[in-house]
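Need residues for this backbone.
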């Protein structure tokens, strides 16, 4: 687990996720609009994300008015020749369609650029996740290619991901 700082703006708070958050995260991720994109669900899966996946990902609970509304994570490539950061997130069903996703992506992108010093960010939604792709495009991410059969679905089939990136001066 990381000793990450809280990231915030006027409305949104990204606070470091803790093992105590696992029940809420697991329950939120089991809802159809999230499980479709995030695959395996359940307390044990989320516990593994925190314990077994090591120190590479920085995980946050997204809060609005003090209540959890989602999950965000980021990682960084520190090799000076390839330095960049990547992110991923989901919003609980009752937080979707309200512009919160755009705010969260913009907040995290700005922090990764201004505080962590990244010049380039990447994100890789499922190629058919139109809602997420529109959100990322509104912040300035651009499609750069398709990763064919990149991730396994809950049904056991493979699906494509859309690789997107954002350069620091493109953040809107």
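Answer:
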């Amino acid at each position: 687990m990381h000793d990450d700082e809280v990231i915030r703006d006027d409305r949104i708070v990204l606070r470091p996720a803790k093992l105590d958050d696992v029940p809420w995260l697991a329950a939120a991720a089991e809802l159809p609009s999230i499980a479709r994109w995030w695959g395996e669900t359940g307390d044990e899966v989320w516990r593994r994300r925190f314990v077994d996946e090591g120190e590479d990902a920085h995980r946050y609970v997204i809060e609005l008015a003090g209540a959890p509304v989602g999950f965000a994570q980021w990682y960084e490539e520190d090799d000076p020749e390839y330095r960049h950061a990547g992110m991923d997130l989901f919003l609980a069903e009752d937080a979707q369609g309200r512009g919160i996703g755009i705010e969260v992506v913009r907040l995290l992108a700005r922090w990764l650029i201004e505080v962590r010093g990244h010049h380039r960010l990447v994100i890789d939604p499922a190629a058919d996740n139109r809602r997420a792709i529109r959100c990322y495009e509104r912040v300035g991410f651009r499609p750069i290619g398709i990763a064919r059969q990149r991730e396994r679905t809950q049904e056991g089939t493979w699906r494509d991901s859309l690789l997107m990136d954002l350069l620091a001066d493109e953040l809107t």
